[in-house]
Amino acid sequence: MRHLLRLNLAVIGILVATGSLAACAGSSSSGSTVPTAPLVGGPSPAGTAAPIAVLGTENFYADLLGQVGGARVVATSLLNDPNADPHGFESSTQAAVAVADARLVIVNGLGYDAFMDKLLAASPNANRTVINVQQLLGLADGANAHIWYDPATMPAVAAAVTTALDAIDPTNAFYFDARKALYLDSLKPLATKIAEMKTRFGGAPVAFTEPVAGYLAAAIGLQVLTPEGFQKSIEDGTDPAPADVAAESDLLTGKKVKVLLYNSQVTSPITTRMHDLAVANGIPVVGVAETIPAAYSDYVSWQLAQMNQLEQALAAGG
Q1: Cα separation, 91 vs 68, whole angstroms
Q2: What's phi and psi for 286, nearest 5 deg?
Q3: CA separation, residue 159 to residues 133, 155, 314 (Å)
């Protein structure tokens, strides 16, 4: 896997030992607060206690934390730069501070954010709750790591987050439960769009550069023709076998697929070549990202926009 991290553990250890870890602030991609578009409705929280520091390693999990936690939390994320390769994340003192301060942390698992193991170990806290989404969903190692594209993932994470927040701040359990209901309602347009696209485009052949939107494609019922070896090599940052490159190229030059789904956040000479080959042969290209781009206020608006783009491309692809 190419999910790598370079940690300055000496600095982190000094900060932990001296107790100088403070609340996270600022806008660095190594630990930034997440401005969440608040869901409207529901009750107000009880009391005037300071907000709870929570952290979603990826910004879509931080968005979920902010939506469910509402005014009772300050949500931070580490992977949030749409112009950066998440797999090459480099930690910082700011990231260590954010992890150390968090009472509730969400990690994706499946090797995607393995660097969190070291960050969490560098600042042990018996009062911190860690939700590992891979474990929550019961997924085996080696499964497609991009599980936030699975329609079943966010409802399950929202339920786990609510349970955790209820335990941290039981006085406001009623508030978190209401916020969870609002969040689940906000996801309904995604389920509706998937059902519409499955009815219209189920079975349509598509190609990937790598399986970022693999779970979404499966939910829609799309037929992915890209060789698994090609997808896995691109995801792992290695050169695909010549036979797989030839097969992928043939899908595009032979116009055997309606759309190429292209990882717009992580590119390489070979993926750029496939992108250009698709364009040259009149095959629509849809970019899919690994974190919420700055243009979108939350997970739902981002996912819905990508689905709309895919829908239009599938229609244009004949």
Answers
A1: 27
A2: -115, 120
A3: 12, 6, 34
Indicate the CATH number of 189-316 among 3.40.50.1980, 2.60.40.420, 2.30.42.10, 3.30.230.10.
3.40.50.1980
> Which residue positions in the chain have pLDDT lower than 50?
1-29
What token pair was written down for 159?
Answer: 């339920």
Question: Residue 41: its pLDDT value, please?
Answer: 87
Nearest to 231 by CA among 216, 247, 255: 247
CA distances to 64, 91, 175, 300 from 297, rounded to whole Å, are: 12, 25, 22, 8
Q: What DSSP state is assigned to residue 236?
A: H
How far apart, in Å, are the Cα atoms of 172 and each of 41, 69, 72, 226?
A: 16, 10, 9, 48
Instruction: List the structure tokens of 315.
Output: 């229609």
What residues does 132 pair with on adjacent strands? 107
Strand ranges (E), the chain: 32-33, 52-58, 73-79, 104-107, 129-132, 205-208, 223-224, 259-263, 285-288
Torsion over CA: 15, 17, 23, 24 (sign): positive
Alpha carbon distance 28, 78 (integer Å): 8
Cα–Cα dist 133/106, whole Å: 7
Write the DSSP assignment of 57-81 as a string of letters.
EEHHHHHHHHHHHGGGEEEEEEE--
- Give CA–CA dist 14/250, Å, rounded: 55
CA distances from 86 to 32, 76, 177 (A): 15, 16, 32
Q: Residue-wise over 107-119: b if at least 16 C-beta within 10 A, else e?
A: bbbbebbebbeeb
Domain 9-186 carries which CATH code?
3.40.50.1980
pLDDT tens, residue by residue, 120-166 = 999 999 999 999 999 999 999 999 999 999 999 999 999 999 999 99
Nearest Cα residue to 92 out of 76, 69, 73: 76
CA dist 108 → 58, 105, 111, 125, 136 (Å): 8, 10, 8, 20, 10
